[in-house]
Amino acid sequence: MKFPLLISITLLLASCSTSTVNTSTPTPRVNTSTPTPSIEKIQRVPYNPEEFARYLVKGTAEVTGQAFMKTQSGEVKYAAGNIIMLNPVTSMSNQWYKEFYVLPLHLHNNKEFINNDPEGFKKYQEAVIETQANGEGRFKFQNVPAGNYYLTTSIIWQVPGRYGLTSTGGIVCRKVSIRSGESHNFILTR
Question: How many CA atoms lie within 13 A of 155 on its CB side?
Fold first, then answer.
């Protein structure tokens, strides 16, 4: 029993007395992390009351439809329970459409609106009409003022990914014209 203990102590002491000198050239440290993309700040177009006046009254049109997307395999994903919006076509909504909707997702993730007119933005939001889709993505708006709108919703679902579930889908938007006293039916998809 003494012999193995003696060998262990000898090896331990021998390793303490040996020193090594590193003569190799130091390896430079390389930053392999992905750089954080800069956020592009976009000044929001100011609220123009003249553009919104026609949308802030009770209308006589009806808008119905269904919102859905198809997966690559052809499976239909409905906007079940999602908010559907009729967003009046104005300089403010045209800016959103141009800066966010028509761009690929990876490009508009790096943009942010700067809003210097919170009161004007609140008035803008009052002109947006909302309803909730049923389980099959069907929706209905009543008393809609005549005019041009962006009919919009988001349809998001989960798919298995490399590290768990990943969200997919996106925003669907369609420019529509509403005439007074008429019923309109639209399919909202992409």
Answer: 23
- Phi then psi for residue 31, to 5 deg, are -80, 110
Whole-number Å distance between alpha carbons of 107 and 111: 8
Give pairs for 35-39: CB < 8 Å, separation 24+.
37/110, 38/110, 39/110, 39/111, 39/112
Does this model's pTM top 0.85? My answer is no
**pLDDT tens digits along 109-156:** 677 778 888 898 899 999 999 999 999 999 999 999 999 999 999 999
188: enclosing H helix or E strand? strand 183-188
DSSP-derived 3-state class of residue 137: coil
Residue 93, judged by CB atoms within 10 A of its CB (0-12, 13-18, 19+), counts as buried
- Helix (H), strand (E) at residue 171: strand 164-178
